[in-house]
Amino acid sequence: MNDQQLLRYARHLLLDDVGVQGQEKLLAAHALVLGAGGLGSPVALYLASAGVGRITIVDDDTVDLTNLQRQIMHTQARLGQPKVASAQTALAQINPEVRVTALARRADADLLHTLMTGADVALDCSDNFTTRHALNRACIAARKPLVAGAAIGFDGQVSVYDTRQSHSPCYACLFPESQAVAEVRCATMGVFAPLVGIVGSIQAAEALKLLTGAGRPLTGRLLMVDARHMAFTELQLPRDAACAACARRDPSAH
Question: C or N: which end of the chain has fewer Cβ atoms within 10 Å?
Fold first, then answer.
């Protein structure tokens, strides 16, 4: 690290669980952020401010006035811009050293498999089950951890799916692809503005922990947030040995 980096990341360097070695891991890391909306905003902002060296953001939407109530990465001045372009501007203003790749397209299975081969961690900030399952499969194939978050109304949830660990479930163990689930979107149900900040910040924290090796990640645990009463509940998530997505994982996983 150079002198400017030593100053920028000084508060990380003071943490025994991070220190110089952990910060250097962040500087060398590559994170994939799927979605540049309510969850993707705090996720990307914190990853950039913390010094994650490369961030790839994928989203095919544009900035709309209705987004600004909760999507803090975007501004009134950037209405109509692709969200990933707005994100690129915001992250450059916070930390110009971070290399940001902005992909203004809808993520499909082929794209996600390609992206995950070069990433160290994925953060699911999307809003539909088809995309979430595609990212889950890409993470399993590439043996990379997935930090998934969701938020609607006053309720949110976060978990880490790390199938490098034999005991860890994948996303499909909890939400099987064959299970019919009604899509619930903010446009029709609404969302409490700070909730996406809470959930997205936890996602960013989990990704930084995974990249540095600090602390204990939420692997095999689902953290549920009730922002109406500000209550947190943790559930243990068992692995489904018959899961169609991850049952054939590498038997050498530990």
Answer: C
